[in-house]
Write a structure and sequence with these properties.
This protein is α/β, with parallel strands linked by helices. The chain has two domains: 105 residues, no CATH class; 224 residues, 3-Layer(aba) Sandwich (Rossmann fold). 43% of the residues lie in helices and 21% in strands. It has twelve helices and twelve strands. Strand 8, helix 12 and strand 9 form a beta-alpha-beta unit. Helix 2 crosses helix 6, helix 4 packs across helix 9 and helix 11 runs parallel beside helix 12.
Amino acid sequence: MADEPTNRLAFRQQAAFCAAMAAPITARVCDALATALARDGRTGRRVLDWPGDPIPDALPLRLVGGLHALARSGIDRDLTALFAGAGEPQAILHRALDDHDAMLLPWLDGPPQTNEPMRSGVLMVGLLAVARRHGPVLDILEIGSSAGLNLLIDRYRFDLGGVPVGRADAPVAIVPDWRGTPPPEVPIRIERVRGVDIQPLDATDPAVATRLSGYIWADQPERQERLGAATAMLRADPVDLVAGDAVGWLRDRLAEPQATGVTRVLMHSVVWQYLGDDRRAAIHRMMAEAADAATTDRPLAWVRMEPDRVLQRQELIVQSWPGHGEPQMLATAHAHGAWIAAT
């Protein structure tokens, strides 16, 4: 169980993470919140008395998301200036927490749902490895899909270290800074993409779009542009995203008949920490059972981009069956996919 010093420290830890991710404005806000938080209002008290583990719960980013959304709204000029890199942060934040207590409190109710199309570039590297191992045709199952931007992975255009993938005329281009040996240039055909989230977001809803924009760090305006373009794609052609528990949904999907020559792929990014021990163990059991049943004609793969918080990076891990059951780290990456480094 956390206590006030632990919860304050979480903001300083998040500040260090943001600084390492080249987000100095957000780092400055997080660092200032560590001391600006007070018990004057309900938001401050709830943060300081947070009962869970503040880092896995993404407590700092919940509050920063709400503050950034307020800054973007323009209703608090000092807060808007702060998220542009100006002003004295502790005084501004202390007042803002008091003035906007009722507006900020609901942002603590759930974890931030970071919807970043660039993460699809990291996942695509794993999918290319699967295609090279087992053939080009993939059936993708994503858990923790949030607003479904990764479910557009078959509609984006990618340039991965000079390797072109996807639709040449796509309105969203995923071009990360590539480091190391490029991925294999192999045929890939994503036959179907489906996703689940415990509380999926409709990014085409203006209120939801405002919320998602708040979660994008102020240091990264290019991410706002990509979010807008990807949201337009969702509006034009919605994805297959349903509400549900990841474990139950995945169990049902794995039980479905699998066509010959199609690789079934479990895919996820920055969701594992939110599932809890019981769900993680259940997914491991289900994947082990499905792996035992996998054949050359009906392969199974697991592609995941998840954080190593100690090293402050994301790791792309791929397993596939038959023949490649040991987890293999193919790359490390920026948390939002800005760069990918082959390992």
